[in-house]
Amino acid sequence: MPIYHQLGNIPAKRHTQFRKPEAAGAGLYYEEVFGTIGFEGMSSLLYHVARPTQVKSLLSPYDVTPKIASGNSLMMRKLIGFNILPESDYLDSRVPLLVNRDLTIGLAAPRHSLTRYFYKNADADELLFVHRGSGRLRTSFGSIPFQYGDYVVIPRGVIYQIDFDTEDNRLFYLESHSPIYTPRRYRNHFGQLMEQSPFCERDYILPRNLETHDEKGDFLVKIKKQNTMHPVIYATHPFDVVGWDGYNYPWAFSIHNFEPITGRVHQPPPVHQTFQTDAFVVCSFCPRMYDYHPLAIPAPYNHSNIDSDEVLYYVDGDFMSRNDIAQGHITLHPGGIPHGPHPGAYERSIGKKETQELAVMVDTFRPLMVTEAAMGIDDGKYYQSWLEP
């Protein structure tokens, strides 16, 4: 949930005449309301050099529906994420692994920047977690620099490109059909993050360096809608905004700025919550001090997750409750069957003072389906890893 932000030049009063200077050919700038949930959700007002509605041609759409391999299973899985091979093209590199009607969870390993075309997800907010690589997200709202450990939130409908600094890039991504917000319990009734929140607005990475292109030509924008990619040719450059203000825009936040909440005994996973939607939550497991009760067991207790599927993406460090886990692994613990620490993890955690683990967790409120791509990187034996030696 970003704060009010403004870049560039805007008129003193919204919905009024905003004229170009004589040197720019006079005439009007074109106002656009960019919002969600009708006119009740967060919105921004953008001012374009050209009408943002000028479509020259529609090319042939193509299907991008994930191929489902398993739609109903209690099998716990471990996916070897770094087995996803790099691809040159940004969209081709995105591999959906776990899906339901609310979201898509996937991995991407793009080698090259997204510069040959523009991309817009018309259906879903996107959350990109940067595991490897750095660069900047470029949008009509300005650019956002990113690096290892950053969450990048891209609201639905934002047209963007991405510049990567190197070819070694790894992203864990979500596509959410519900808006992605900060947790409600962290905010007061004004929307400000409260003192007990594990992060605050000062930690946000907001758009900067507004680009304003006054260009005509053929600009390819690939628009994803209802599992179909629609290539659209626009007559003017999508990044032609001279100014904007509001609350609905892309932003970023570093997992390294999440301040863990700890206690005398083991704290439940909601203390790690970082984002929420109507359909799932995202949590950040970060380096932290362990529980300090003299008889504390730092490893988590066994948990019967009846109401949700749990997905964990392992980023770095030694994840204290698991055996044989490495960077880039994804575990799926489906609802309906309990899970907990691996054999030995419960005992060896006793007396430990801290953990250096770094992981992203997604808890969904509806069951997830497993794609064919996910089956191709499943180790096939994770569900048996709780058996006693």
Summarize this, please?
This protein has helices at 90-93, 345-348, 372-375, and strands spanning 5-8, 30-35, 43-48, 55-58, 62-63, 68-70, 77-80, 94-99, 103-108, 114-121, 125-132, 135-139, 142-146, 150-154, 159-164, 170-176, 216-225, 228-236, 241-246, 251-254, 273-276, 280-285, 288-289, 303-305, 309-316, 329-333, 337-339, 354-355, 358-364, 369-371. With 389 residues, the chain is mainly beta.
Describe this structure in words.
The protein has helices at residues 90-93, 345-348, 372-375; strands at residues 5-8, 30-35, 43-48, 55-58, 62-63, 68-70, 77-80, 94-99, 103-108, 114-121, 125-132, 135-139, 142-146, 150-154, 159-164, 170-176, 216-225, 228-236, 241-246, 251-254, 273-276, 280-285, 288-289, 303-305, 309-316, 329-333, 337-339, 354-355, 358-364, 369-371. It has two domains: 55-70 and 84-255, Jelly Rolls (Sandwich), CATH 2.60.120; 260-384, Jelly Rolls (Sandwich). A hairpin with a 2-residue loop joins strand 17 (216-225) and strand 18 (228-236). With 389 residues, it is mostly beta strands.
Offer a few descriptive terms.
Jelly Rolls, 40% strand, 3 helices, mainly beta, 8-stranded mixed sheet, 389 residues
Structurally, the number of domains stands at 2
Unreliable spans are none
Query: Taking all residues together, what is the mean pLDDT?
Result: 94
What does the radius of gyration come to?
22 Å
Overall SS class: mainly beta
Name of the CATH first level of the largest domain: Mainly Beta
Looking at this structure, what is the CATH superfamily of the largest domain? Jelly Rolls
User: What percent strand?
Assistant: 35-45%
Task: Indicate the CATH topology of the largest domain.
Answer: Jelly Rolls
Distance between the termini: 47 Å
Number of helices, counting only DSSP H or I runs of 4 residues or more: 3
Can you summarize the main beta sheet? 8 strands, mixed
The CATH level-2 architecture of the largest domain is identified as: Sandwich
The share of residues in helices is under 10%
